[in-house]
Specification:
The protein has a four-stranded antiparallel β-sheet, with no helix packed on it. The chain has a four-stranded antiparallel β-sheet with strand order 5-6-7-8, with no helix packed on it. Helices cover 30% and strands 13% of the residues. By secondary structure, it is α+β, with helices and mostly antiparallel strands. Helix 1 runs antiparallel to helix 2 and helix 1 packs parallel to helix 4. Keywords: 2Fe-2S, Disulfide bond, Iron, Iron-sulfur, Membrane, Metal-binding, Transmembrane, Transmembrane helix. GO terms for molecular function: 2 iron, 2 sulfur cluster binding; metal ion binding; monooxygenase activity; oxidoreductase activity, acting on paired donors, with incorporation or reduction of molecular oxygen. It holds the Pfam family Rieske.
């Protein structure tokens, strides 16, 4: 029996299919690398979109340009098919130029599917207990540290005299003002009214605390002059600055972290360390 002829692939089709599968594999590898380096939601989404798009485009080209389409009518007398037809089908499937025997296409498809499968395993790492402490450690690192100068909103270094009594001044760390956990506030209080000594100390009544509410991370900006109370506008938590910024109302359960400060030889305010506790909203290991 003469072996049936299989129509050759149009020029460039194999290359486009292989390229699509390689792009899919690259997207899957990019997702795995991005996730392994700490994760960034937008880039992870882009990588997954590229991976699935490349796989879909490659399969679409394969099915449209290499697999025969159309209506076929085949006469047969019954099942199983005659030995001649079985031999013909086997000859088509085993032909060197058969669409299902093109090794390059199958290898590229296998690479794309393998890369996607491996990438799908990476998010399972989030369910393991070994990484549960990583976000906690990250929250404890802020731009504040020994020797960091306090700047106002205009980027100007502050001196103790720049903080008038009875007013709250937002301050930022020099060199790290853009960090989300960096904002703090300075306020001058009367030391004799302290009912609890500030955990970070004070400089002649001048204290500095994190600006982020310990409930949901909103900025606490509403200062009730004379009462020493600072209010969060989001959920109405209230902090008593005379009692080391202890919460006295609302859903917040932790006091505002304090920042130890000093005046340097030139009279500028500098931090002598970081916050006394991680700033911002509470998480699973804290109230």
């Amino acid at each position: 029996m003469r072996r049936p002829r299989v129509a050759p692939a149009p020029p460039g089709v194999n290359g486009r299919i292989i390229l699509s599968f390689l792009v899919s594999a690259a997207g899957a590898i990019g997702f795995a690398v991005t996730y392994g380096l700490g994760g960034q939601t937008q880039w992870e989404g882009v990588c997954l979109a590229v991976a699935f798009a490349g796989l879909a485009i490659g399969l679409a080209i394969w099915g449209r340009r290499l697999v025969p389409v159309g209506g076929y009518v085949e006469e047969h007398e019954g099942f199983p098919p005659p030995p001649e037809e079985q031999a013909m089908v086997a000859a088509v499937l085993t032909a060197p130029d058969s669409p299902v025997r093109r090794r390059g296409l199958l290898a590229a498809l296998g690479l794309a599917l393998t890369a996607l499968g491996v990438a799908a395993l990476f998010p399972l790492r989030s369910l393991l207990p070994s990484d549960r402490t990583r976000p906690v450690r990250a929250r404890e690192v802020t731009p504040w540290g020994p020797g960091v100068r306090l700047l106002n909103a205009d980027g100007r270094p502050l001196r103790p005299g720049d903080i008038p009594a009875g007013s709250v001044v937002t301050v930022f760390p020099e060199g790290g003002a853009d960090a989300g956990d960096a904002p703090a506030f300075a306020v001058r209080l009367r030391p004799e009214r302290f009912t609890r000594p500030p955990s970070a100390g004070h400089l002649d009544g001048l204290v500095v605390y994190s600006l982020l509410c310990t409930h949901a991370g909103c900025p606490v900006r509403l200062y009730l002059k004379g009462t020493g109370r600072l209010l969060c506008p989001c959920h109405q938590s209230s902090f008593d600055l005379f009692a080391d910024a202890q919460p006295v109302a609302g859903p917040a359960a932790r006091r505002l972290p304090g920042l130890p400060i000093e005046a340097d030889a030139d009279g500028y305010l500098r931090a002598t360390g970081g916050f006394t506790a991680p700033p911002g909203a509470g998480y699973w290991s804290r109230p």
